[in-house]
């Protein structure tokens, strides 16, 4: 990988984290007025809905969308599981030092 490609990847990674942090900040704000489990369920719902939209919008036809649905679902499920397991590991290693969230447990 060239230095230019590395720089572009680093920039994309930074943008990815910034966008994710914005969603997390919004969710934390929602937890001030709503049950945190409801907020979490809403985030999962929104992610599923947006993933379906992206999959459909990238499909060239309804048939292609239908044919690719199982593969897309498998991809999203695998990605979510990898991310969730990684974050669970991170929280496990820092569990005793964690900062309390801005909402009741």
Task: Characterise the protein shown here.
- Helix 1 crosses helix 2 and helix 2 runs antiparallel to helix 3.
- The protein starts with a helix and ends in an 11-residue tail after the last helix.
- The longest helix has 33 residues.
- The protein contains three helices and no strands.
- The protein has 105 residues and is mainly α.
Summarize the structure.
With 105 residues, this protein is mainly α.
SS elements, strand count: 0
Helix content: over 70%
What is the structural class? mainly alpha
SSE pattern: HHH
What's the layout of helices and strands?
Blueprint: H1 3-31, H2 36-58, H3 62-94
Helix pairs in contact: 1-2, 2-3
Identify the notable features of this structure and list them briefly:
105 residues; mainly alpha; 3 helices
